[in-house]
Design brief:
homodimer; 366 residues; alpha/beta; 8-stranded parallel beta sheet
């Protein structure tokens, strides 16, 4: 294929990012962090590209957050400061962790003695030291410690191993998903829990130099969490239908769409596009009266009501709009991170012009 | 990384296929088709690998079925007989279709005059002819024509264009998802609809040399659809939790699992593994009392009750089993096709030994 110059040259489905909106989103979050004295350490799981991580660092990010070793390996070309916010459990993963380039300062988040002990042993064998953040559960009930005594005990151990150093705590407030206008109570509860842990750590002689939190839905409330030093939002670079729905961005801030072509109008009341669950991914919108798996950028009332792997069914029942075979649409997915992960490349566009091609280099684990 | 010899050498999550079960599944479907005088044209969307497509052809498949051009381009190395069961709408897609290697006989399924006319024009310009199957809607209400007069009209046009030839009809019985013991009525209705179309085509002078149907859930009922010449199952190569649930395979026929490691047990009543929605994918089980997004191969009562991108939460509430951090489990996903599509490679295993690495070469569209 010749290098595409225009969106019209792309085979669909194709993952498109609007460079102006991306730039605006990056600047907004960077400015928020700077103005509130918070370090910004974006989670690159959302875009998995070197180009966008570089831009995040250029705009002031102190480093990046990764979940997988593949992500960390790719990001080692971009930054020397990587938080792996995921316990590196198991020999194969620890081997790869220890094999990261020597210039990279690696911090690891974890919540168990087993993960810590294995990390310390691997680090000693490899002649490498790791900063450790103890992961707290502040309400999501996924991972993390809830009892301050457990937090202190793990901090003690991290401080005692030769190859690890206790650096602070991290949490992921994934349970805060309500509209931004309704987050006050959850933020207050989170802050109370956090301070209990920080108080216990201080009493035990552990200074938490890093207190790392943040997610895109709760990011702009971070200044209200006293003691927080760092935020790790990921989705904000693109935003998505969920982010818009909860008021964490405007619809016009949605910078990522899946470009799709209408391929069939044979069945009444619907049109079929070539973006299905292998291009958009299937994730329900967590909101009242939520319908569908994505909505058209230019017609948000038109949703993808159902999907097969390569078919998305546009619901036309509530609209007079009737697309024709060959028409193209741009779809904002419910959850952008899992849509990006389906695409080998992201096409950066300015209006209708394709201006760059970004490899989604950090996909997969192998 | 050194080449892994054992499952223990793999970084998790990893996509594993059991070579003995795959061989058994491939033989079972090949034998069914042969014994019932049906052509087998497997849909390779399930595995997207050259190696497994080659094995399907070696066992008697007449060719393969693809949805995307990327799939067809990869499969051109394996077979010279490809059905693209997807309308090639739009210039970029038609260009790639016409650029497929000359040795490949390409058949195209479509349901509109617009798609047909564009195909004919592109074929004429490229000096290439295409066989055409008219797609029927026999109950799924996704794509396809329902009125026999429309079917005949499209067959007329396919016969009249210089670059296209009417070869028959195709349908996808995706609406047949009930247990195999309860499919009789749906199969009878489908057969009645199909015969109405075939009768109308015959009356108009069109011989449908190909009558192509089949999906894994309904595959073993294909001999009861008089007039059917070909089946296109995909999932059968691996099977999954859905296939087992509806009785289209035994649990012991599930040949694909996601190998995962327990990374946290901090929250009571659950264990967290490193296979989440980016390794298993999120698709609900369409069955009564269905729970979760996957189940453990060796403990099918333990399900993945919820997921984040890199976290799967095993529900331990109904079990006394308590895994430890570092333990490994193998998870059968609800829908195998969308899980495979998340992995760059499939690891072929015999017991605990890794015997081959298959690239999932036909992922994506670019």
């Amino acid at each position: 294929m010749n290098e595409p110059r225009s969106l019209n040259d792309l085979v669909t489905p194709a993952a498109i990012l609007d460079v102006e909106r991306v730039a605006r989103n990056l600047h907004t979050m960077a400015a928020y962090a700077r103005e509130n004295g918070l370090h910004l350490r974006p989670h690159i799981k959302t875009h998995k590209t070197k180009e966008l991580a570089s831009e995040q660092v250029r705009l002031g990010a102190v480093g990046v957050t990764c979940a997988t070793l593949r992500e960390a390996e790719v990001m080692a070309d971009v930054t020397s400061d990587i938080l792996i916010a995921y316990p590196p459990v198991g020999r194969p993963r620890l081997e790869r962790l220890c094999a990261l380039p020597a210039h990279v300062a690696v911090t690891v988040g974890l919540d168990s003695r087993e993960a810590l002990a294995a990390l310390a042993t691997a680090g000693t064998a490899a002649g490498r030291t790791f900063d450790v953040l103890v992961e707290l559960d502040v309400g999501m009930r996924r991972v993390g410690l809830r009892r301050s005594s457990d937090v202190v005990a793990l901090a003690d151990e991290a401080a005692n191993h030769a190859a690890t150093r206790f650096r602070g705590v991290m949490f992921y407030p994934g349970h805060i998903r309500q509209h931004v206008a309704e987050q006050n109570e959850a933020i207050a509860q989170l802050t109370e829990d956090l301070h209990e842990h920080l108080g216990a750590l201080a009493a035990a002689g552990h200074a938490a130099g890093v207190v790392s939190g943040g997610s895109t839905p709760a990011a702009m409330a971070s200044h209200r969490i006293a003691g927080l030093t760092e935020i790790r939002p990921g989705t904000y670079v693109f935003n998505d239908r969920t982010t818009a729905e909860i008021g964490a961005c405007a619809w016009e801030d949605c910078a990522y769409t899946v470009l799709a072509t209408v391929v069939s109008t044979a069945v009444d009341g619907q049109a079929v596009v070539d973006a299905g669950s292998k291009a958009l991914n299937r994730e329900e919108l967590r909101a009242k009266d939520a319908r569908g798996f994505g909505a058209l950028l230019d017609r948000p009332d038109i949703v993808v009501k159902s999907m097969s792997e390569e078919h998305g069914i546009l619901d036309l029942a509530r609209s007079d709009w009737r697309p024709r075979i060959g028409d193209r649409v741009r779809i904002v997915p419910n959850h952008v991170c899992v849509s990006v992960n389906l695409h080998p490349v992201l096409w950066a566009a300015r209006g209708e012009d394709v201006v760059a091609r970004y490899e989604v280099a950090a996909r997969g684990w192998a």
